[in-house]
Amino acid sequence: MEEKKKHKLKESNNHHFKPCSDVKGIQFGGQFVLKSFTVRRSSLLELLRLLAIHPPQQNQLEHQSNGLPFPSTTMYLPTSFTILAQNAWHTLTLGLGTKKSKVLLFVFETETMKSAVDRIWPAMFPLGDVNKRLIFGLTGCEMARFKFRKGCLTFYIYAVRSLGAACFPCAGDLRVILDSVIELKDFIDHTAMLALSNQKSITFQPSVDKLI
Fold it and tell me: What is the rounded radius of gyration, in angstroms, for the C-alpha atoms of the chain?
């Protein structure tokens, strides 16, 4: 009975994974101007802050065998220019231009895969290049796509593993990220992202900046 449950769970997980060429990319609707706006690779602190996950303290890190959390996750945020440009576009179009932004998270099956992909993916690029360069351009892999709208932010989350793999080793991290996004309240304004990645946040302990 237990083996049947595991088999069904594995089939359910595999059902979500598709070759990169068949996975849905990010969508723009009629807001084609968004394709020229840029996103940047974020720091771990920004990832934790955006998902409202409190970072581990020094004593917790010393007892963790895998070190910092989400070691196989890469996130892209809108750049400061994008946020300012979207606000200006919204004003110039008398409210017709969207103020909504997109956040991209890629949870890779291993930290090794993440490191290899990070070396070939640019640190900053236009949103219009995401589908072609990041999603459809990643050969030898398959992805599972999740999309959540949270007010002015739309989260695109992709689980990435080797093509034909039987399981997803980082399913625990993926589950935590999905649950965290689901629990988030709608974002009314995304200008908080203008803060520099090394700027202290009142929601975290001062010592955290030294850990990341």
Answer: 18
Contact 44, 68 (CB under 8 A): yes
Spatial separation of the C-alpha atoms in residues 2 and 65, rounded to whole Å: 29
User: Cα 40 to the chain's mean position, in Å?
Assistant: 11
**pTM of full prediction above 0.85:** no
How many domains is the chain partitioned into structurally?
A: 1
User: Helix or strand or coil: residue 55?
Assistant: coil
Maximal C-alpha separation, the chain: 62
The C-alpha atoms of residue 100 and residue 152 are separated, in whole angstroms, by 4
Checking DSSP bridges between strand 101-108 and strand 73-78, what pairing results, if any? antiparallel
Location of structure tokens 């593993």: 161
Given a cut of 80, whether residue 122 has pLDDT beyond it is: yes
Give mean pLDDT, residues 9-16. Answer: 54
The closest of 204, 203, 197 to 43, measured between CA atoms, is 197
**H or E segment at 143?**
strand 141-150
**Under 8 Å between Cβ of 38 and 127:** yes
Residue 112 lies in domain = 2-211
Q: Which of 121, 120, 168 is nearest to 144 (CA)?
A: 168
What is d(CA 75, CA 45) in angstroms, rounded to the nearest whole number? 11
